[in-house]
From TrEMBL:
This is Threonine synthase. It catalyses: O-phospho-L-homoserine + H2O = L-threonine + phosphate. Its EC number is 4.2.3.1. Pathway: Amino-acid biosynthesis; L-threonine biosynthesis; L-threonine from L-aspartate: step 5/5. Residues 93-366 form the Tryptophan synthase beta chain-like PALP domain. Residues 10-77 form the Threonine synthase N-terminal domain. NCBIfam families: thrC. Belongs to the threonine synthase family. The keyword Lyase applies. Its cofactor is pyridoxal 5'-phosphate. One of its GO terms (molecular function) is threonine synthase activity. Keywords: Amino-acid biosynthesis, Lyase, Pyridoxal phosphate, Threonine biosynthesis. It is an enzyme of class 4 (lyase).
Amino acid sequence: MQLSNIKVPSQQVSFLQAVRIGLGEQQGLFFPTQWPQLDVPRLLDMSFVERSSHILASLIGDELTAAEVQQMVEAAFAFPAPLAPVTDDVACLELFHGPTLAFKDFGGRFMAQALVKAQQAENVRKTTIVTATSGDTGAAVAHAFYQQPGVEVVILFPEGKISPLQEKLFTTLGKNIHTLAVNADFDACQALVKEVFNDKALVQQLNINSANSINISRLFAQICYYFEAVAQVPANQREQVVISVPSGNFGNLTAGLIAKVLGLPIKRLIAATNANDTVPRYWKDGLWAPNKTVATLSNAMDVSAPNNWPRVEALLAQGLVGRDELEAVMVDEEDTQLSMRQLASLGYVSEPHAAVAYKALKRSLQPGEYGIFLGTAHPAKFKEQVENILGSPIALPAELAAVASEASLAVSMNADYVQLRQALLALDK
Ligand SMILES: *Cc1c(COP(=O)(O)O)cnc(C)c1O
């Protein structure tokens, strides 16, 4: 598979090169210019791991053998993605059964597998991963790479702006996982990471890679659970599927659009955002006008300049996705809480991110359609909020209970590039 840089089309790389470099010249994103044809009905009859191996092998092409890809998928996708019915025509695709209880485990763990292959292919001895997290990426990346030889991980997060339990999932590991609590918001953390990638000398010296959702391996991995969702829909309703995606950086939504481009029957996708509604406003009036990021209940979606949007634009420009196949819906704080209470009254306990997607879905769903909203995190990850909003206690799963009492090892810093650069150089011993 040949990928090209969306901003600098002359920069062409293979899949493994894209995995290792992360972000291209001029901060351009790598993206395929052609898509494989898949035998979708046959794929839908397969198991999750077998089907995902086929999809990823077709996307990657001959750079890795089918057996290699299957072994990577088996290691990465070691937990299910069940479709939990909420009503007759609505279900939640639960993507939170991995080790850090969020959908980012799928992308993070597959990327860890892909990076091993990329290091082998290019004889790289050591890689430094620098990533910004608005909550769940940090945990997924930290766990995926924890104690992996030849990899140092540096995670930036907005201090005090993510849930305490989210934070504990990645700041308590230590060893090759280094965490920096930045006194700023997520967009500022993301801007710092972009500065790192613009610093060519540093990138070369430390072999720096980003594990953000801009990494193509994460995006490819996420395509697979859309197929898993449709495979669980009763056959007579498969032509009527509408999927609502709680969106922040829009990696998840991009993966859904790619699944559709690959032939998966999805009638339409809904990009559901919180009050950080750059995309819903843009979709309506055509003006790209990010506001200052505001803090919301669905904090992993507090992003006003989503970094995967150029990939969505590329699919639109190539005519692969039509305007009527995508909707963009903003759900405010009041409706998010209302949505959680409505779900609870239907017997389904959820959390703010999924609740945003559920509300957007309910506003859009037509009679005869089958709606799926993505459950991107386990409700216990947002225990305080969920208990406050629903007024009833929820239990901590074992993964969270274990870290809740451990001390954070994060180091505080200002949003200052010079300070960050020094911290990174200190790792190169
Ligand atoms: C990261 C995250 C999102 C947003 O996903 P994007 O791919 O960045 O749009 C939504 N919900 C949760 C729980 C997340 O952690």
